[in-house]
Amino acid sequence: MANPKIFAEQAFLPEGWAESVLFELDETGSLLNVTPGQAAPAGADIAKGPVLPGMPNLHSHAFQRAMAGLAEHVRPGGGKEDSFWTWREVMYRFVAALTPEQVEAIAAQLYVEMLKAGYTAVGEFHYLHHGPDGRPYDDIAEMSRRTLAAAETAGIGVTQLPVLYGYGSFGAQKAGEGQRRFLNDPDSLLRIVEALKAASEQNPQLRVGVAPHSLRAVTPGTLGEVLRGLDALDPTAPIHIHIAEQMKEVEDCEAWCGQRPVEHLMETAPPDQRWCLVHATHMNAVETAAVAASGAVVGLCPTTEANLGDGLFPAENYLAHGGRWGIGSDSHISVSPLEELRWFEYGQRLAWRRRNVLAGEGAKASVGARLYGEALAGGAQALGRSIGALAAGKRADLLVLDPEHPEVGSMPRERLLDAVVFAGNRNPVRDVMVGGRWVVQDGRHRDEERVQAVYAETVKALLA
Questions:
Q1: Contact 149, 451 (CB under 8 A)
Q2: H helix intervals, 258-366
Q3: Which residues are catalytic, by number?
Q4: d(Cα 125, Cα 333) in Å, to the nearest integer?
Q5: Which of 138, 306, 322, 339 is least enclosed by beta carbons within 10 angstroms?
Q6: Tens digit of each residue's pLDDT (9 = 90 or more) over 221-248
């Protein structure tokens, strides 16, 4: 554990920026007291810059970090035919022979990068379950345990979301060869969940939920079965699902059942505050209002959604209805919370051809502060952990910004989040604490050289 007392000249608290803040930690790594207007006590750690809450990353496929950049060549026949669906075939080929050791090495590298960028918790939407031939490992949770080992190595908090993937498309169509490593029925998926839940009982850095992959990959029956099984294990556990990411998905769903994906989900398995609807890119006005009213979180991944050509989320309408949202790095073609927030707003500016679309109420509303604050709250809710704010009872997950960064050192506090979100590309994060432990100091992770060396050898072997 770090020093149980930390002092910051400025800190971003739930009510906004505060001066001379004393943080007192308990022995479990949570915040016991957060008190502004204090003098620095003798022996306290002194934060060397402004302090922010660490950002939750609510959507990750860790193994995809090693294929970032591998799908950017034009396919034979021309780029006009490239799409999410052709990208998916590249992913299937890449994942075909990954070993458990390689998955752990890739995830460790990714999680170190996340921490250095300012993510302090991750939702691992994990669907790579079995061996290359599709048969389970002796330990059916082997691959999930590998990502958890990587999270422990890096020091990041994690919500593990084993994925139910049973079919190739709507209407229980048979899965393809490229999907054979992903497949489970509800019983085998719940065995993984139960094994991981046992591992989480004494670990405040680990939460376990479940992720029906998509309406394409489950049926109403298997979805209901896994949700009932999850409720028996933990009735508060998070539930994540991909939905309405691509127009083809919407059209295929309509052809199957006469309803759009979000419309169908709202009728057959109505989401509530436990749910995270990942992407939800293509919603009509009725669906948008319904999701906002449900209390669920929408998981937005703007850099991946742009990379895959998904489309733009109806953000202005959703936020006008009070919708909750958070951010994820998904395929990890970028690992930066600031870039996700920036492109969330920039996508709306390009769509509507005006500025400060998501500023909120009031002439002095800060776009950066609103985006950062709402992403904290939505991410914490989606991950089902007591994180996302610098307040008593929350985990001690915090970032110290670098006062020598041009935007950090020059801007008044009320403009700081606007500056770091929208100005420049240099990472402003200096130090990172997760669960009361410093994992990044002076911009360096405690184990980054070893982790990166193992990762480099892993990628060389995969691409040989």
A1: no
A2: 261-268, 285-294, 302-307, 315-320, 337-352
A3: 279, 330
A4: 16
A5: 138
A6: 999 999 999 999 999 999 999 999 999 9
